[in-house]
């Protein structure tokens, strides 16, 4: 039974607590307004003189601060950061936080693994805290991420930063269940971490979904959101948000489309590119190598690499889901002596998350992945990043290798380039990427093609997988824009097929009949199969088609007079279908 007077004591303590907080908030606000960095300056260029570091909290300068403790942030956030062992700030945090805490729009660029997530989460939490945001105030901040896995990871980091706060957060991503509880709860959440399609779906479908009070919008990996064909979705989202808000936009690579987006959605932004002046564009502790090998030697190289790195944690990038599936399945049967996993967009969300968390935990493991794993994902302690297929461009290379050598760790990367892809090295070096080029040590190569041929001869399903892997790889090369690097006519197709264990070279229809017909095929395929795809695959498809569309522009001389029309019909059809699926996709749980 409650002791007499206990309730009164609790109420008094609660009231005292609120008064302390009100006092803290007014002190924070005073400090933020008197100590704000001058617009257009980079706080990294400052340091706090030692005699001023110890002055009383209320007036202590914070431009040039190196420790979180020195920032004008609440005691609740300070305690949360200390619990997570976040003590010293990284460069992007030192540069961006003083501006962002003052409520300014920020366009932040810093290398992979440099701590951009905290640079936007702390201002989000602090702004809502200073406004004493509560459950009745609804959605106060929205954080948009290009992929579900990255959204989950941001959400986990948000839990750490918000540990001692009373704010509520929710994860709005596709592929999750229990629609009613999501619908019912979404309006009571203060911070939403979401993927663009899912957010728009809520905006369109959830009764009384209200963002009119939104204070902060964050776009993480904005260039990737745009690359994935989400520009229209993003525009539709931004037009539904109040204009009076703070917007924070972060990425490791800044493209022209990001600058366009920034022009549209940011107001007088502080442009904070902490590594722009740096001599190299990739993390300092990353050792990068390129090995020139023929396309038909790549699979042997990969197998040999795995066999000689059984004690490492390695992320292997391939360009299509079907390649990932084939290499994973066939290598698994050959039992290299280390756990193998795969991650690609055609997997169910529950499987994707299970693989993501398992790979995070494992010390020695190999993960085969498409570019779905290239951005933002913070797998702890990855030793090696192996790129079997050449990435689309330099930005994509930077994000892939950025999965290792994160924060203060070291790491290594290797890219296998065929002779026709060698020009990529010039592009990387021109973009301040220090990469050593070597030839393969043929004595150490352990051939695997014979073993694959043996497997394929016994298993028609695996053989079919190999054929699909072959075709999708060539299609990906065909669709890439930069024909100086991605030239299908220079590839040894028969030898490549043999290297995958295939006795005969599969027919490549899209090469024979021209790109127009390829898209026509794609269009029919979409008609036939579209309804069977899950939401995620539909979104992937839209992304693929957007990329195809972009790349087709480079192929104008293609001898197929009606391709423009076919392309536009295919694109239109996909956009209608995706829109329909956004509308009809069932709501799911957090
Ligand atoms: N100040 C800090 N002190 C200690 N660890 C930190 C600090 N800031 C970030 N980290 C850790 O460093 C890792 C990388 O941070 P984060 O994922 O935010 O990098 P990023 O810049 O967003 O990378 P990417 O461009 O690849 O998305 C994370 O594990 C994060 O918890």
UniProtKB/TrEMBL annotation:
Gene3D superfamilies in the record: P-loop containing nucleotide triphosphate hydrolases
InterPro entries: DEAD/DEAH_box_helicase_dom, Helicase_ATP-bd, Helicase_C-like, P-loop_NTPase, RNA-helicase_DEAD-box_CS, RNA_helicase_DEAD_Q_motif, SPB4-like_CTE
UniProt-listed CDD domains: DEADc_DDX10 (cd17941), SF2_C_DEAD (cd18787)
EC number: 3.6.4.13
Helicase ATP-binding domain ranges (all copies): 97-272
Record Pfam families: CTE_SPB4, DEAD, Helicase_C
Biased composition (Basic residues): 1-16
SMART domains: DEXDc, DUF4217, HELICc
Top class in the EC scheme: hydrolase
Molecular function per GO: ATP binding; hydrolase activity; RNA binding; RNA helicase activity
Domain Helicase C-terminal: 298-456
Biased composition (Basic and acidic residues): 17-26
Protein's UniProt keywords contain Membrane: no
Region (Disordered): 1-45
Ranges for domain DEAD-box RNA helicase Q: 66-94
Function text: RNA helicase.
Domain comment in the entry: The Q motif is unique to and characteristic of the DEAD box family of RNA helicases and controls ATP binding and hydrolysis.
Family of this protein: Belongs to the DEAD box helicase family.
Protein name stated in the entry: ATP-dependent RNA helicase
Lineage of source species: Eukaryota, Viridiplantae, Streptophyta, Embryophyta, Tracheophyta
């Amino acid at each position: 039974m409650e002791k007499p007077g206990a309730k009164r004591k609790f109420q008094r303590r609660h009231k005292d607590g609120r008064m302390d907080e009100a006092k803290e908030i007014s002190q924070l606000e005073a400090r933020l307004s008197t100590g704000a960095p001058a617009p257009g300056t980079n706080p990294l260029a400052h340091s706090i003189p030692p005699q001023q570091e110890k002055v009383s909290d209320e007036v202590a300068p914070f431009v040039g601060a190196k420790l979180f403790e020195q920032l004008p942030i609440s005691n609740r956030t300070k305690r949360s950061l200390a619990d997570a062992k976040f003590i010293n700030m990284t460069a992007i945090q030192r540069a961006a936080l003083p501006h962002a805490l003052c409520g300014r729009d920020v366009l932040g660029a810093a290398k992979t693994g440099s701590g951009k997530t905290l640079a936007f989460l702390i201002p989000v939490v602090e702004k809502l805290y200073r406004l004493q945001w509560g459950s009745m105030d609804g959605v106060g901040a929205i954080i948009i991420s290009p992929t579900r896995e990255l959204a989950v990871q941001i959400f986990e980091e948000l839990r750490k930063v918000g540990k001692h706060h009373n704010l509520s957060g929710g994860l709005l991503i596709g592929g999750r269940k229990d629609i009613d509880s999501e619908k019912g709860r979404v309006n009571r959440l203060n911070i939403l971490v979401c993927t663009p399609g899912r957010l728009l779906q809520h905006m369109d479908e959830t009764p009384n979904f209200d963002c009119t009070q939104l204070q902060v919008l964050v776009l993480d990996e904005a260039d990737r959101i745009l690359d994935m064909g989400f520009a229209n979705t993003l525009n539709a989202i931004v037009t539904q948000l109040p204009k009076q808000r703070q917007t924070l936009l972060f990425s490791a690579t800044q493209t022209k489309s990001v600058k366009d987006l920034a022009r549209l959605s940011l107001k007088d932004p502080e442009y904070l590119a902490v590594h722009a002046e740096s001599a190299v564009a990739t993390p300092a502790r990353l050792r990068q190598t390129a090995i020139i090998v023929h396309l038909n030697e790549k699979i042997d190289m990969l197998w040999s690499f795995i066999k000689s790195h059984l004690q490492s944690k390695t992320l292997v990038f391939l360009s299509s889901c079907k390649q990932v599936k084939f290499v994973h399945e066939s290598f698994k049967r050959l039992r290299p002596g280390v756990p193998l996993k795969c991650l690609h967009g055609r997997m169910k969300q529950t499987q994707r998350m299970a693989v993501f968390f398992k790979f995070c935990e494992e010390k020695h493991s190999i993960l085969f992945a498409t570019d779905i794993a290239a951005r933002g994902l913070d797998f702890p302690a990855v030793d090696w990043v192996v790129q079997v297929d050449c990435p689309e461009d330099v930005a994509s290379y930077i994000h892939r290798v950025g999965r290792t050598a994160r924060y203060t760790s070291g790491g290594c990367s290797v890219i296998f380039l065929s002779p026709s892809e060698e020009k990529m090295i010039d592009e990387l070096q021109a973009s301040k990427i220090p990469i050593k080029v070597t030839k393969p040590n043929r004595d150490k190569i352990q051939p695997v093609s014979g073993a694959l041929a043996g497997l394929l001869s016994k298993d028609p399903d695996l053989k079919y997988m190999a054929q699909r892997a072959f075709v999708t790889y060539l299609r990906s090369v065909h669709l890439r824009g930069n024909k100086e690097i991605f030239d299908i006519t220079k590839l040894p197709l028969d030898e490549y097929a043999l290297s995958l264990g295939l006795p005969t070279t599969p027919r490549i229809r899209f090469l024979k009949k021209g790109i127009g017909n390829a898209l026509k095929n794609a269009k029919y395929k979409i008609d036939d199969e579209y309804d069977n795809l899950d939401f995620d695959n539909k979104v992937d498809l839209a992304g693929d088609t957007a990329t195809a569309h972009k790349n087709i522009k480079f192929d104008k001389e293609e001898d197929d007079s009606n391709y423009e029309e076919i392309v536009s019909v295919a694109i239109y059809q996909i956009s209608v279908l995706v829109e329909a699926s956004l509308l009809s996709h069932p709501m799911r749980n957090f």
